[in-house]
Amino acid sequence: MDKQRTLASPATLSGSTLHTGENVTLTILPAPVGHGFKFQRVDLPDEPVVDAAAAHVKTVERATTLVQGMVKIHTVEHVLSALSGLGVDNALIQMNANEPPIGDGSASAYAEMILKAGIVAQDAARSYLEVTEPVTIELGESILMILPDTKFRISCTQVGPQGRFTQFLSAEITPEFYEKEIASARTFVFYEDVKPLMDKGLIKGGSLENAIVARGDSVLSKEPLRFPDEFVRHKILDIIGDLALCGRRLRAHVVAVKPGHGINTEAAKKLAARHAEVVASAPRPVTAGSGAMDINEVMRVLPHRFPFLMVDRIIELQDDKRAVGVKAVSINEPFFQGHFPGHPVMPGVLQLEAMAQVASIVMMLKTENAGKIGYFMSADEVKFRKPVMPGDTLFIECELTSAKKRLGKAACRCLVNGEVVSEGLLLFGLVDK
């Protein structure tokens, strides 16, 4: 079974940023299964967390910027590229400024710190986003196609102004290939673009120590090119980081012509939306490894009934470890009468209860647990990120992190329109009826 992975220990990197020119310290922390990638601004009150999700992409001017609420994270692509490219699935990225260190303009500093910290397998299967039909996006002169494949491959063509520095590279992206052939490729800029970027208040921390400047047919750099085709390799580095925002590891062949952050993140948004549609509409039967349960099957497993049954159906089951449930939140829910009159919002504790019910289903479907009842015991690292309103469809994702006889632990989250609205780590117990 292909397992999820996280860091074995925390890793820290300090340095200056590219666009704001500030000094920043970044620490990557291990995270539980199902956590994905998240950024945390430890310099702000309450230390807010921003999900590394395509839905939060705000601007793509020479970098990818995430915005969630009032919190911004600039230039996320290099650290996400290193994590994803080296095979990490779950990590919390803490920063004391709004932009990660630029290093030497590549992802090598991040790759080195991640490899030094170590990467460990976790007790849960990976969840892949498998492309079943071609996806094509065109944006200006850029074209990006995503084709079905059993591996993750990228074929990229980089073309500069007047056709200068036209380069092509095609490869399967594995952790070994990423470490040796992609991570050290540096960012670059064409000389004629430098002044317009500076006029916009960007690249304040830029220098020949963290970027290559192409002037005419020559390159200006503190050191020689690391690869004859370093430009296209850096484009692939950016594609890997931007596509990590779709929230799943890809099994697809990405074909890109003159790519940039704009078209990359549009592709990530489209992939995330398509995955949500597939999950929501998949009417699969229950099987030993994966499947679905209608409301009658749910009620045969759970003892809960109206008004406390918080799961309408199960749309995904995997290896007695993971389940995805659905709850259609109607204005007719009895709790909306008092929570709150004139401004109905689903109580957070009921979202937690929905998570616990889905997790209990996973646990009770094990043969040895047949006929038992699941009791919600505790919740840790609970966060409520957005209100859930009448008319929303709640997707409840739960993944068991451990299951020992009568105790189970699960990493759970609730999503609406592909965005996390609540999450937590739950402990629950099973007793005989």
Features:
6-stranded antiparallel sheet, Thiol Ester Dehydrase, Chain A, alpha+beta, single chain, about 20% helix, Ribosomal Protein S5, domain 2, about 425 residues, 6-stranded mixed sheet
Task: Tell me what you see in this structure.
This protein is an alpha+beta fold and 433 residues long. The chain folds into two domains: 278 residues, Ribosomal Protein S5, domain 2; 138 residues, Hotdog Thioesterase (Thiol Ester Dehydrase, Chain A), CATH 3.10.129.10. 22% of the residues lie in helices and 36% in strands. It has eight helices and 25 strands. Strands 11, 12, 13, 14, 15 and 19 form a six-stranded mixed β-sheet that branches. Helix 1 packs across helix 2, helix 1 packs across helix 5 and helix 5 runs parallel beside helix 6. The protein is elongated, with a radius of gyration of 23 Å.
